Fold this protein.
Amino acid sequence: MQPAQRNSLRLLQWMMAASLALPLALFGFASAMSRISNSEAADQEIQRTLDVTHEHALKVFETIDRSLSEVTEVVRGMSDAEIVAHEKNLHDRLRQVAEALPQVKSLWVFDANGRALVNSLVEPAPDVDFSDRDYFRIHAQGNIGTFIGEVLTPRLPYQGARFFSVGRRRNNEDGSFAGVIQASVLPEYFENFYARIGREPGSFLALIRTDGAVLAHFPVVDHQARFEPSGPLGQQMAANPLAGTMTIRSPVDGIERRMRYERLPEYPLYVSAGLETSAIRARWITTMAQHLIFGIPATALLFGLLALAYQRTERLEEEANRRIEAEDALRHGQRLEALGQLTGGVAHDFNNLLTVIRASVDMLRRPDLPEPRRQRYIDAISNTVNRAAKLTNQLLAFARRQALKPEVFDACQNVRTLCEMIAPLIGSRIEIAAQVPDEICLVNADAGQFETAVINMAVNARDAMDGVGRLTIAVRPVSSLPANVAGAPSAHGHVAVTVTDTGVGIPQELFGRIFEPFYTTKEVGQGTGLGLSQVFGFAKQSGGEVDVTSEVGKGTTFTLYLPRVVGDHDTPSPLADDALPVDGTNASVLIVEDNAEVGKFAADTLTQLGCTCVLVENATHALEELAIDSGRFDLVFTDVVMPGMSGIELAEEIRRQRLDLPIVLASGYSQVLSQQGSGGFELLQKPYSAEQLSRVLHKAARSRRLRRDQAPAE
């Protein structure tokens, strides 16, 4: 599976996970916010209810207080005997007041002994002792103002609903205790009112004395209720006596509630309102359930769509992988076919070359061979070796394995020079047109391989025109590669070298094979099929591209694209040779070569040129020779590919030891050289001639002498 395919599937997996995780996270966040919002709304609702009950309780007790004041004024200055004497009138008066107050069950006037002098219920008042009641005892102890008692049960012969008392002290003119004026207040009056305003599920309302005794409770309980001072509510009231909010489990009915209390001004009473925590939680659950009703289907739909997309993408990727596998198998078959062609082509061409060499050697061994024929056979061997070397270089070029010598040069100038050289090569019946701009088009490539590539394209064009037509060679700078050309972009664009012919053209179905080595449509003996493969290999290895367009019957255009170089650069003259062949240097040379025959040939050649040679078979022995006395050598001539330490590694070690020795590398082919270059060391390609060997060694020795002459004297 390709990285892009894996990334797409991984992205869908992340999206599927996100389609679940994100709604869950949002639901969790919404749940938390909803819980907070519900709690705040519940607190606000509790506060609104408490405000209503607080206002109601305050008005009720103020009304009761006014009624007690009215009764007090009625009996003010009257003795117990006078009250008894006017009991009937006083009874009627008290009954009228009590009937006007729905919260009041009855009104009473007691003497100092706890006997009822008059009441609103019956006349005459039964002789019953009430001195044990809390409302009597508390007033008998002192003047405390208005007192509110606990909930009591009526004493026989009186019957009816339970009540709590609101009473005041009666005083004689001397201030002594004369009795109590008391109103019996109905808890059910408050409970009925609480029932009307507490319609929300889980509502709670209560009227509570400061000591924790519950006077009225909603929901109604069938027993005497009390909040102990040592309990949570009692402690909260002690810490915050005016008002407070808390969550507690009620000792009255065991239900957990969120509640708020508030003190009635001038009365020892609290009103309280609240909601059951289960009701608040139920509201929150209802809200979240509404979210889930819409959220779950939407999330399920999104997840389902992503799952379908994932499955479809996975199927498409599987199909793509199967196609890739099939294409790989096809390409493998094509490679095997190309390899077969390559093998056959190499075998055919090299066998032809070896036949010439073998026959020439056999003829040279004849003792009666005339000198002219001997020279002819020597020339044949030399020419055949050159053809073999050229064939090898073309193969390496296609494989992008030759060691290039990149340099910055002007493609325009080189093409101008090449056009003059190509003219005799392609024949007089072909018209050559050069379209080269005046501007400089610098490229960084191997100049020799560049020229070979242009010549190969020109020769291919010549053969396509059968020696008659028009050949156009053009150079132009381009900012980008054409859309049909796959290649890496260049920061400064490319230089395009175009070779156009008026030949027979190339069928479209052959475009995929024209750059294959040894593939040719020419007759046997008229081409090796390596010319265009060299162009392809050189372009790829130089970081460029090659493109072809053609129309059958009208001609073909080959375009070589090379990355353009900008800036100031010294450009060498095109087609310039390094130096002329030279005689011996009288130098002392350390030869490092693992092939005994090649090493002996090099030693013999250099000896004939006047050099003193020491031949070793590997880099280890070379370092040992240098360790004895490096000054006795003028240069090191080493093969690149050797067992153990390579020639490049040996050169780098000599450089690391700071030995002032020129180093010349020799190689027929090296993977390291093709990928990394020669590392700045002089390189001689195999096979090399005696003249090439002499020229390179002479150049290296001369460079060393120049460095020594320019060194400052100590």
Summary: The two ends are 68 Å apart (CA to CA).
